């Protein structure tokens, strides 16, 4: 049974928060799973935007979409992201450049520590309280570096 003391953060998704006791549990990591095209990215965008409206900055790690594409997609749903980026409330970390060496065959996998370092900088810069990683790609789950470094959000990011 769940402790009543868990603070909740609203997802901002209509109808969902009331079903899950007001929102997601604060300081927890959630995995949103589903088949292609089932709305995972839309869910994540709504979560980030809801946070911004509540005064919680957000960092969105875009694994396989260029930020411009993500911004364009959001625009088509009537959600302007650029304004929030300009105001320092939203930052998008484009992960695709980290894969350049992999694509060129120079490296087998990306350096997860480098990504984590850059992500930490972005989180600190805008004092982000919400973090989205979309999607969690196999490359990140099974990286070849055996240090245990991953791009999974570390608690210190939020301190
Ligand atoms: N809540 C929603 N309201 C209206 N349209 C939606 C909603 N959720 C998803 N869609 C539509 O479904 C499309 C696919 O959604 P989305 O890109 O979020 O899926 P996904 O699960 O992230 O897919 P993928 O696994 O390919 O990344 C969107 O472009 C949008 O048109
Ligand atoms: Mg998606």
Order of helices and strands: EEHEHHEHHEH
Which distinct ligands sit in these coordinates?
A: adenosine-5'-triphosphate, magnesium ion
The CATH topology of the largest domain is given as Rossmann fold
Q: Would you identify the regions where 5 or more consecutive residues have pLDDT less than 50?
A: 141-156
Structural class: alpha/beta
**Beta-strand proportion:** 5-15%
In angstroms, what is the radius of gyration?
16 Å
CATH class of the largest domain: Alpha Beta
Q: What is the percent of helical residues?
A: 25-40%
Spatial shape: globular
Assembly state here?
single chain
Counted up, domains total: 2
CATH architecture of the largest domain: 3-Layer(aba) Sandwich
| Spatial order of strands in the largest sheet | 4-3-5
The CATH homologous superfamily of the largest domain corresponds to P-loop containing nucleotide triphosphate hydrolases
Separation of termini?
28 Å
Number of H- or I-type helical stretches: 6
Mean pLDDT: 86
Summarize the structure.
This protein is of the alpha/beta class and 159 residues long.
Describe the protein's architecture and organization:
About 10% of the residues have low confidence. The protein is 32% helix and 12% strand. The strands form two sheets. It has a three-stranded parallel beta sheet, with helices on both faces. It has a two-stranded antiparallel ribbon with strand order 1-2. The chain is α/β, with parallel strands linked by helices. The longest helix is centred in the N-terminal third of the chain and has 14 residues. It folds into two domains: 30 residues, no CATH class; 104 residues, Rossmann fold (3-Layer(aba) Sandwich). Adenosine-5'-triphosphate binds next to helix 1. The site of adenosine-5'-triphosphate has 9 residues, from helix 1.
